[in-house]
Amino acid sequence: MSDGIGGEPFTAADVKYTIKLLLDNEIDSVYSANVSGIKSIDIVNDYSIVITLNEDDPYFISKLTFPILPEYYFKDESILDEEKAKRFVGTGSYKYESTEEEKIILTANDDWWKESDIKLRKIYLLNYPTYSEAIKGFKSAEVDMILTTMHNWKEIFGFIGINSYGYESSEYEVIIPNTENRILKDNSVRRAILQSINRENIINEIYDENAVIQDMPLMSDSKYWVPNAEYDVEKAKQILINAGWTEENNNWIKDGNIIKLTLMVPVEDEDKREVAKKIKDNLAEISIHITINELPQSEINKKIMNGNFELALASLDIKNEYQIQDLVKIGSKYNYARYTSMEMEAIIEKLSSSDGKIYDANMADFRNCYKNEMPYIGLYFKKNTILTNKSVKGEYKSTSYNPYENLTNFCK
Question: Dihedrals φ, ψ of 83, to 5°?
Answer without folding.
Answer: -65, -40
